Amino acid sequence: MTDFTSLGLAEPILRAISDEGYTTPTPIQAKVIPSMMDGSDILGIAQTGTGKTAAFVLPILHALCGDPMPAKHRTCKALILAPTRELAAQIGDNIRAYGKHSRPSVAVIVGGAKIPPQIKALAKGVDIVVATPGRLLDHVASKNLRLDTTTKVVLDEADQMFDLGFMPQIKRIMGYLPKKRQTMLLSATMPKQVRALAQVFLHNPIEVTVTPNSKPIDRIDQKVVMLKTADKRAALVDYLATPDMERAIVFTRTKRGADKVCKHLEMYGFASAAIHGNKSQNQRVRSLDAFRKGKVNVLVATDIAARGIDVDDVSHVVNFELPNVAEAYVHRVGRTARAGKSGQAIALCDGAERGLLRDIERLIKRKIDVVDRPADSGLKVVPEEERQVLQQPEPAQRKPRRRKPVGKRNEGGGKNSSGRPPQRNRRNRKPSAKAKAA
Length: 438
Known about the structure:
With 438 residues, this protein is an alpha/beta fold. The chain has 16 helices and 14 strands.
């Protein structure tokens, strides 16, 4: 198969993907799309960046083109589960882009967002629901959504959902779905728990493996710096100050650590923002949007940003702390070298993390080059007053408030220009007869 036309997709979908500039399907798309269109269950192993989102979205949109009947109230025809809000939002954007000529109804249901708009979207029924497991169960429990008529289900990044503890919730969700359905499970790695889940919920699945193991992209220049924990922040500042550093994602292990690193970078004048699970949905959306638009050139994040953030022109990924799970390193460094470009991945490793580094090297089957710390950038702490000026946008100029003219008493009855009796101030009111008697 050399182009999307040979896959047999509906004409509105072919027009949409042509508008997006896609001409040739990726290996996973060439294998998954025909199998899904035949109605088979799929067990796919592919890392982020291989085009797997389009691999399951396009067949769903094709099926909807052949089913013009609208979804019933409080139901959905297709359900896509994702581990993070950012990934769910990105899948929703892709559905709208690929379906702009067929116009399916889509609802993105995630935690941290306001519930009333979600209830309103679900009430009239939708073609596709993209959701995180916890918030979806909230709506099912409140009877805002029924899943007994949903015929297509996709579990994206199943291994991460297992790592985040979503598996009990996923099992509950699968229990609400009809037994006769088409299920697709996608994962970057295939641990025993995920394979066991596939055996329970998939029926005679077709297994599609694009890469046997999750390996970083060859275009990424990977380096590691050995240093003491106390020297990490200074080394980070020096790296971010290098001339070739255009846009960077800095990964930390904890939410609190992300906030501390972000505050430290702001002290040195870097336009940075933190994104992690303790941030509200609006804060996360604003930070990510500012990073995409270039208003912020350093994003400090936990592993929720290792998948689901698809931003072009990320020149560097810095592992301020190595992840506890080696596979997470692969997803972290995969945020750079996207869209055919090159990128750099730098790991700051202290003595306590050497075992984690060995696990990573064992996974990727190569030694990461050890380099020296960069030269001292000479950056100084920016004074607080200057930081506030740099970080806060200028307030919009308010128009002067126009005061309404006070009506004058006219001669005919003590009324003002509006025709109403003038209001007396309480202090100037005449005492009533009852008050005088008292």
